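DUF4327 domain-containing protein
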Amino acid sequence: MTQQVTHPMVKMQRQVRSLVDSKIIKPSDSIWKIALLYGDDWSFWKKELIEFGFTMQDPIGDLLAVEAWDEE
């Protein structure tokens, strides 16, 4: 039996979706707004997002629209 490992970005995406569902942030807000919620861990997540082609001005909705976090 093999266990599938969840990509770290999937976990982050779930957390962000939960924040949107809770109305803490909106899909139209810029990604940089989630920096306030991640505190000291933000530098890691910012680097990851940039590597996937995001800018901090992109809307959170773009992050939530990603269906697969494939690294090439």
